[in-house]
Fold these 2 entries.
Entry 1:
Amino acid sequence: MRAAYGILLLSFGALILRAEHSSPSGSGRVAAGERHTSVSSGTIARALSAITPSRSRDDEDRAARRRRIRSAQAGTYITDILAERDSSLSRWPDRHGVPLTVWIQPTANNIDDFTPNFVARVRQAFLEWSALNLPVQFTFVDDSTDADIPVVWIDRFKEPISGRTRWSRDDDWWITDANITLAVHHSSGEVLDEDSMRAMALHEIGHLLGLDHTRDTMSVMAPKVRVRQLSDADRATARLVYALPAGPLR
Ligand SMILES: [Zn+2]
């Protein structure tokens, strides 16, 4: 039944992309200063140390923030995110005009079916998010050692997914670093077409920004990506998240 369902969808050209993200668990206290992370990476330059999280809004009490969300949640899936995240929001600190640097692995000679067009499509995905004019913008760099956000390719995941984002946050729930891995092939072996690669990147960048999954299947942040561009709800939700401080809401 499951196989027949998949074949039916394929026949309509609506190839579903499965995505997965890894994020720090929301529960459990850790020692002060310890980074909440699901990945260890010492090779990537950290965010500019001169940029400090805008903590002034942390004083806004949680009840007030919850009221603010209630008044602004129409047209967003913020409640889905809060349900996934145990009522906490994580996002990057405001960058004050300093973009995050993105390095997209330019070649992958050891991966069959890889095309540089994939790189161009992932760039398009970053630019589509950048067009929202959030307090976090992106710029591309040629040297991975300069990058805040590396994007790397693998042949395929063992699991039935096509992309993975790992990110870390500090004790105050501000995202500190992140990386994205994209697969050239579905775990079944089929190569992703370029539009699917772009959609997969849109989804993973959504995670990178702090978004989580929505039940809205017409949004790119659905767990199984069916659409090929950001929805109005994707945009509205990201704008709302970036109008709020990071942190728990209860
Ligand atoms: Zn996801």
Note: The first strand starts at residue 17 and ends at 18.
Entry 2:
Amino acid sequence: MARRIPPRDVELTWVGKRGGPGATALLEQTACLRTVERVPGTAGPALSCDVAAPPNRLLLGDNLAALAALYSTLEGRVDLVLVDLPFASGSEYRVPLRLGRDSGGRGAGVLVAYRDVWGPGLSGYLAMLEPRLRLLHGLLSERGSAYVHVDQRASAVVRLLLEEVFGRESFVNEIVWAYRTGGTPGRLGFSRKHDTVLFFAKDPTRALFFPQQERSRLSHRYGFKNVVIHTDDLGPYTWVRCRDVVEVPALRGNQPERVDYPTQKPEALYERFVLASTEPGSLVVDCFMGSGTALVAAERHGRRWVGCDASPLAVAAARKRLLALPVRRPFEVAIVEQDGTFGVVPEPPRVRARAIFEGGGVRVELEGIGYERPEALPAEVRFTPEVSADFVDSWAVGWDCPDGVASADWVACRTRAVRELPFVSPPHVYARSGLHELVVSVLDVFGGRGETRLSVEVGR
Ligand SMILES: C[S@@+](CC[C@H](N)C(=O)[O-])C[C@H]1O[C@@H](n2cnc3c(N)ncnc32)[C@H](O)[C@@H]1O
């Protein structure tokens, strides 16, 4: 981890800055990752590096503790850090609460997904960011890169901070994501139509980089030498190396890619960075993952990944997106625990379920959920939280969970498009007779997780 930061002629400072301590001081935090669910993969090609590699993981909790917990196993092993930071916007980001079959715009209220509020000025924001960037730098392999997504509010200071952590010579590109929509100005100023992605390489002489190609439109076909000119419906074009301006529209309205998570970015944007700076089997980390766009891009291209977010709604959204992929490797969901406690886990739903024996198989019926402490549910929600299937967002059955960790062998989710949820599973036929312990787990609309265990005796 130790790396000599070259002498600086420019230095970023802020009120309360402690100065770069190196990652070791941060590792004194004692955090552990408690696995709460295992999600099997779909059938598909296994990665060559799968055997020794730790499983892909979704972590719920503060990313400082999560990074400290990952450090001992992942130091120097990550090829890509791809993070879309909170932008220091001073805003609270909300999602519509959709109950049961409700797919309409109004929903039953709103839930806070996360708050991007760090006190006056930028010092609280920078104090939050600095130790996280230092740990991320330590996780990167010698061929690793970091792409840090910000907007005009924080891009100047984040770039200086990255130069301090990585060294100025590690800066590669300031990438402009031009998204066309949004950003209507007040009286003064031009419309804001772009974000910035800062690209740093841990060691620019060794960083993985696979140049991507894009179409460059030509106004005519004449006068070019040694250039292959193609033509499509829009006219002639050539293939050129991708520029540092990415023109991908922002997600809008009812685009199928959209999930109910604010600040979700288009997959095509992050796919470009995954393809440019990793190879199959590379490990990608996004510890501000939101709905998991970077992880979905990584998964689609056979990269391994670890994602983390402090918002239970983010982890629920990312899990659902990963579950929807037609081909996916197994992954785990874990909770980041510090000193045996965790701050943001929502009230767990109590789960009622029963096993139904049918022919030679076993089905599970989810009878309902309830809450031990309904008063602990979000205050802005207007409802009587008495056992209701409408609060179930997804549920799963693990047919055999010998170590007690729930497995999602069969899983059903509501999505924006499909709100209907089955409450009886398909039958499962056990290959082995005898006693089995199955686990029925539920994620509710608040991102709360609850489970119950059922023992079933299968005859000989
Ligand atoms: C801009 S959003 C990421 C959106 C994401 N790129 C997507 O496409 O959905 C930033 C995320 O960082 C998370 N976050 C902020 N502070 C965090 C912290 N200390 N630990 C973990 N996650 C954090 C927020 O909950 C939020 O989901």
Note: The domain at 349-458 is CATH 2.60.40.10 (Immunoglobulin-like).
